[in-house]
Design brief:
Layout: H1 5-8, H2 11-20, E1 24-30, H3 46-50, E2 56-59, H4 66-78, E3 84-90, H5 91-95, H6 119-131, E4 135-139, H7 141-145, H8 149-159, E5 163-165, E6 180-183, H9 190-198, E7 201-205, H10 211-214, E8 225-230, E9 244-247, H11 250-260, H12 267-272
Parallel strand pairs: 1-3, 2-3, 4-5, 4-7, 5-6, 7-8, 8-9
């Protein structure tokens, strides 16, 4: 590991992992602790540089904390909304002797993984789905991240509702599936974008509604009520104001939805989409 140049070369990869929700732990080198802040040779504040593109970034300042910090890093990187974590290792910490303990689990103050779903909100969303004449499921990358592909397919088939996907959601349902319309958004298919424009309920699971999907916000799903299920609280109603916000892991939400699922008559709507 090198400090400075080696650390700054990771920035693009970390940013990509951050926006694509890829769990990643990055170890960078740093100048010795006594030299931090003194403009030492190849010193870079990599923790400060990457703060906005990592879930957590930290400089190790005590060798005895290393095992705990590494355990925390891997836990944070892969739980909740996955993403990158950076551990900055000063040169003197790298060469210091210390305990080899690696804890089985860690308690992280202020960090809690949401492994439940608000059943009341979910019931409200499901009632809207049952009453909709032209419902459409929008599957995002959160389906793949949560490994909810089987759950999604079961729900889609039980409800008989057509599906479109985002770029990151590709693979959430087989492209040969009869209920799959296509990829939507700027790089999507005409049929999928037409379905989004014509639907009266957009049931979104695991997507951020970024500009590649929505295009002009004033023209996105103009006829639809919108349900938004996502594990990340910050993603709800950030770009698109939704009617029913639900903060939950896609698998947890779909588990509950599959308990209620009943087929809808959507033959006419499927012909249009």
């Amino acid at each position: 590991m090198t400090s400075g140049p080696g650390a700054t070369n990771t920035v693009t990869g970390l940013a990509d992992a951050h926006y694509d929700n890829v769990p990643l732990v990055c170890f960078t080198g740093q100048v010795p602790l006594p030299l931090i802040g003194n403009d030492a040779f190849q010193e870079v504040d990599i923790v400060g540089i990457t703060r906005n593109i990592t879930k957590y970034s930290v400089t190790v300042r005590d060798r005895k904390d290393l095992g705990k910090i590494i355990k925390m890093a891997f836990h944070i990187a892969r739980t909740g909304k996955p993403g990158p974590v950076l551990i900055d290792l000063p040169n003197d910490i790298q060469t210091a002797s210390g305990p080899a303990e690696y804890p089985d689990k860690v308690e992280i103050r202020g960090y809690r993984v949401n492994d439940t779903v608000h059943v009341g909100q979910l019931k409200r969303a499901y009632k809207m789905l049952k009453s909709a004449k032209k419902p459409l499921i929008l599957a995002g990358g959160g389906i793949n991240v949560a490994r909810a592909i089987d759950n999604l397919r079961r729900f889609v088939e039980a409800e008989n509702v057509p599906v479109v996907t985002t770029i990151m959601g590709k693979g959430a349902i087989p492209t040969t599936h009869p209920l799959y319309v296509g990829n939507c958004g700027m790089h999507g298919k005409y049929a999928a974008n037409k379905a989004v424009s014509e639907c009266d309920l957009l049931f979104s699971i695991g997507t951020r509604f970024n500009d590649r999907i929505t295009g002009d916000l004033n023209e996105f799903a103009p006829k639809a009520k919108i349900v938004h299920i996502d594990v990340d609280t910050a993603s709800i109603s950030r770009n698109v104001v939704v009617d029913v916000p639900i903060v939950a892991d896609a698998n947890v939400a779909l588990d509950k939805l599959n308990e209620w699922a009943e087929p809808k008559k959507t033959a006419e709507w499927q012909k249009q989409s």
